[in-house]
Amino acid sequence: MANRRRVLLKLSGESFGGGALGVNPDVVAQIAREIAEAATEVEIAVVVGGGNFFRGAELSQRGMDRRRADYMGMLGTVMNALALQDFLEQAGAQVRVQSAISMTQVAEPYIPLRAVRHLEKGRVVVFGAGAGLPYFSTDTVAAQRALEILADEVLVAKNGVDGVYSSDPKTNPDAQKFDRLSYQEALVKGLKVVDSTAFSLCMDNNMPMLVFGMEPAGNVTRALLGERIGTLVS
Q1: Closest Cα partner for 125 from 74, 77, 73, 85?
Q2: Closest CA to 5 of 165, 105, 122
Q3: What per-residue confidence (pLDDT) applies to 61?
Q4: How confident is the model at residue 2 (pLDDT cuts 50, 70, 90)?
Q5: Cα(74)–Cα(76) distance, rounded to whole angstroms?
Q6: pLDDT reading at 104 higher than 50
Q7: What is the Cα gyration radius of the chain?
Q8: Segments in the chain forming alpha helices (H)
Q9: How far is Cα 189 from Cα 133, in angstroms, rounded to an integer?
């Protein structure tokens, strides 16, 4: 088991809902199969978003206390983490969920060394409840967790876009896709790869980031196994 590739995969909450509210079982089952396929060869940790249930920032714009809205969002990520655990187990993977908010009935507490031990034993570790703190996006948590478990790379799975472009490809047909980018270039060009805090964490600690699209089917497995799809930011 020595020196296997170790990665952290960031999945958005939107991907769980297939664009709708809640969890779409068919979509999550497909994602789980793709992760399970790679889990036999790669050590995989996953950070899930909660946008299919709640978005703290959006709720706070409607007058809700930002801190409380963020905690609601974190609880949404735990629901996604449990759904992913179930479908991963159905696909034959061994899984542990760790939550940054204490919920001992459904998940282990977030303990970095224990997470690493699970990975070394070939288990997929799913991190729920974000950072357990308001004002932190799950993008930032993905960067932080990747650094703390000594991952080789952060993989950011995107919906509806297959990498980093010079501008929004949905609105600008002339937008150019980058195969490789330095963090410095991305900052200077003002490219919205992930949120700025996550970006800074990866840049300051030399953590490479692969931004790729979840379509077509099989892309998640390819990215996990180290195939160069999407855009590499380093």
Answers
A1: 85
A2: 122
A3: 83
A4: low
A5: 5
A6: yes
A7: 17
A8: 13-17, 25-39, 56-61, 66-90, 112-120, 138-148, 183-189, 196-204, 219-224
A9: 30
